[in-house]
User: Fold Tryptophan--tRNA ligase from Garciella nitratireducens DSM 15102.
Amino acid sequence: KKRIFSGIQPSGYFTLGNYLGALKNWVTLQNDYDCIFCVVDLHALTVRQEPKHLRKRTYDSFVQLLACGIDPQKALLFIQSYVSAHTELAWILDCYTYMGELNRMTQFKDKAEKHSDNINAGLFTYPSLMAADILLYQTDLVPVGDDQKQHIELTRDLANRFNNTYSPTFMVPEGYYPKTGARIMSLQEPEKKMSKSDENENGFIMLLEEPSMIMKKIKRAVTDSENEVRYDRENKAGISNLMEIYSSLTEKSFEEIENEFKGIGYGEFKIAVGEAVIKELDPIQKRFKELSSDKAYVEKLIQEGAQKAEALAYKTLRKVKKKIGLYQVK
Ligand code: TYM
Assistant:
């Protein structure tokens, strides 16, 4: 079986973008692949976090993944900071990553602009920690949204660089992107991706959001002055984004959607999108409520996941240390 690894930051509550771009795929893939999924709490530190919020969101992130349908019998689920091999390999990879490569990362540039009061070294070297996450587990495929493409490319470059400098050590992973939903945009600024850390809460929908609020946000979504449901990313970014959401949830093609809403207009289309989102999220919200109160069960899974991940990660880390010349007593 091929190995899959992917991660998600607990820097906020998961959004519909996270779900359609990544999580929905994770749930499907766990049936056919050897899957490892990780709550990457160390990555969240690149932006200032309130400790008690980070702690709660990390727990809630773990439970949200379970609620989405990640099955701990099928997939390995763990929290990044429990496995110190991640930061160890990240340091080593830092020493094989060029400043120029990190400088080109658009996510760094965006975040540095947004958090200009806190452009820290971790924000800059974020991609080599992400590469460490992936490379530790000899990953074949990384299911992510479009915004992670550049990071995956860098991970591949680092793997190849290391393998060529020493000898084959890392599997060279490939990105795995969904056909629709790979890039869900903000409901308020459809030129910008939907993000869990957006200050404008009307821009995103959270998985745990109240149905009435979901409907309200979709009804308020920015569209255009026409009244024709038609897919045109350039000129009709808002409507195209809602079509993308609807298409990912119903598996209808854009053409089918255009026909379904021909002559009907935006009002009803938005209601249909809202209903589709609410229907999809309803079972997730129910499971979240059930599971999150069962702390003993969740914490047992957190510990078991960490142990399994640690065993796998250290195998790769030991090989790496040996190849680069760190002294090891036999
Ligand atoms: P993060 O936490 O920002 O997002 C988690 C996943 O959701 C996807 N995503 C989106 N997909 C479609 N539309 C959107 N608007 C949208 N917003 C987010 C992301 O592409 C991602 O798949 N750097 C990663 C976390 C990470 C990671 C890893 C991922 C750390 N180590 C190793 C894969 C493998 C991140 O910040 O994701």
Observations:
- The beta strands are 3-8, 34-39, 76-79, 141-143, 174-176.
- The domain at 201-289 is CATH 1.10.240.10 (Tyrosyl-Transfer RNA Synthetase).
- The mean pLDDT is 97.
- The CA atoms of residues 110 and 171 lie 30 Å apart.
